[in-house]
């Protein structure tokens, strides 16, 4: 946009404003699907807005929250999957502790 001090301030302000709207939208989606906000991917909500825009212009959707929370749109990835914690590797057969006398 610009390299002046005012231009940089406007870019920072716009970035924070979009981030605040995205957090609010993600929170509304989380409330609609009755999950905590931590289970919602804000990146995928942002990307899902592209698909909502397409559906809106085709007359298939009118509300971004209900569109992103709909069961048929779960493939957009807005809800994070619960993953198993990583397994701890056991190196005990291959590791000899250093002795204090060496």
Overall description:
It is a single chain. The protein is an all-alpha fold and 102 residues long. The chain has helices at residues 5-32, 42-57, 64-69. The protein has one domain (5-76). The chain is built from 3 helices and no strands. The N and C termini lie far apart (64 Å).
Q: What would a concise description of this structure say?
A:
With 102 residues, the chain is mostly helical.
Ordered list of secondary-structure elements with their pairings:
Layout (H helix, E strand, L loop, with lengths): L4 H28 L9 H16 L6 H6 L33
Q: Output mean pLDDT.
A: 89
Structurally, the number of domains stands at: 1
Would you count the extended β strands for me? 0
- Overall geometry comes to flat
Taken as a percent bin, the fraction of beta residues is under 5%
Query: What string, H for helix and E for strand, traces the elements in order?
Result: HHH
Q: Report the end-to-end length measured between terminal Cα atoms.
A: 64 Å
- Cα gyration radius (Å): 23 Å
- Portion of residues in helices? 40-55%
How many helices does DSSP assign?
Answer: 3
User: Regions with pLDDT < 50 over 5+ consecutive residues?
Assistant: none
Which structural class is indicated by helix and strand composition?
A: mainly alpha
